[in-house]
Amino acid sequence: GAVVSQHPSRVICKSGTSVKIECRSLDFQATTMFWYRQFPKQSLMLMATSNEGSKATYEQGVEKDKFLINHASLTLSTLTVTSAHPEDSSFYICSARGQEGYGYTFGSGTRLTVV
Amino acid sequence: TQLLEQSPQFLSIQEGENLTVYCNSSSVFSSLQWYRQEPGEGPVLLVTVVTGGEVKKLKRLTFQFGDARKDSSLHITAAQPGDTGLYLCAGAKGAQKLVFGQGTRLTINP
Description:
The structure holds two protein chains of two kinds. Chain A is mainly beta. Chain A is 0% helix and 56% strand. The radius of gyration of chain A is 13 Å and the shape is globular. Chain A starts with a strand and ends with a strand. The mean pLDDT of chain A is 92. Chain B has no helices and eleven strands. Chain B has strands at residues 5-7, 10-14, 19-24, 31-37, 44-49, 55-58, 61-65, 71-76, 85-92, 98-100, 104-109. Chain B starts with a strand and ends with a strand. At the A-B interface, strand 4, strand 5, strand 9 and strand 10 of A face strand 4, strand 5, strand 9 and strand 10 of B.
């Protein structure tokens, strides 16, 4: 089946630094990738949608200059949290969708803690 | 405004009881999916329903898609402690983004 690898699974960074999270589709080509944010005991909130080779589409209220998304290939998308602050601490999850069918495959998530 | 209203958001019942979780919307979806998520992990797909009125069964779990493709339900029969977790419904419109309901945090007490 389709597998999405997300790395790192956990990261702690200092306030003001930037953190990059990778999302890779291992056995299929992901034409579209999605990035979600999840606060404790809450559901997933879509942050942005990225299509390979084009700019990401951000949801309302999500700062595109703070959450940089790059989808340079059909198997890799990255989310960079720039100038991180403690309020950016959260669980970030990526999802990938292939060219055929309607399947969405999720990564295992990244727990970001900004100290 | 929440696109998908999921209820209840919290449910705690005894082992052996039955339960139903609802997912409602005013929008029509091309497909609706149910996920289960464990703490610290990504959601895992349980089922996808596509056709209005469709019913799918997964062991003790029964999923139904409303005739108008605006709502769905998840029914669990004879719940077990292993069913404890966060259940999420998510709707898709064509090849577009997947949006999630608020989730139902289910606790099955032994």
